[in-house]
Amino acid sequence: MSNRQADPAAVKILVAGGFGVGKTTLVGAVSEVTPLRTEEYMTQASVGVDDLAGIREKETTTVALDFGRITISDEVVVYLFGTPGQERFWFMWNDLVNGALGGVVIADTRRLETSFASIDFFESRGIPFVVAINCFHGHNTRTAEEIRTALDLDPQVPLLIGDVRQREFAKETLLALVDHLMSLPVPAG
């Protein structure tokens, strides 16, 4: 009999949302390791391609993925994969989603329409998700019910409102996803 301890179970979570909503920030807020980021500076080539409305101060963009890790216990490790938000990089989502147990959609109430594609992506693949409304600098002009209606969310999809820069809110979001996953019926088979 071997004394070797079994490798921990890997849990993959995808973090998606529109351009500039806080995906990289959420991964960085909770990762126990320095996150892998594939960010590049925005250049003149993005003028007319990337909509900077509401995010004029944005200087970099994720071009492939963000990656972070959270060790839950000796038995479970969570791997976070942040998706690129710009439409020209959405082809990456199809590869990143493989093996994902669930997802987090980050949305900005100033630009809710940027989260529609992420919600549709998870719904069309039957991947459970939660929605985290990122209140930049505490700014939120909508109620939870108004947001839920605008996003056309099913009643069982958890909706959280906070600031993804805050580690506690980022952790709360991931815990809400775990609770949501645990509340779903176990597939037969």
From TrEMBL:
CDD domains: Ras_like_GTPase. Keywords: GTP-binding, Hydrolase, Nucleotide-binding. It comes from the Bacteria. Belongs to the GPN-loop GTPase family. This is ATP/GTP-binding protein. The lineage of its organism: Bacteria, Bacillati, Actinomycetota, Actinomycetes, Kitasatosporales.
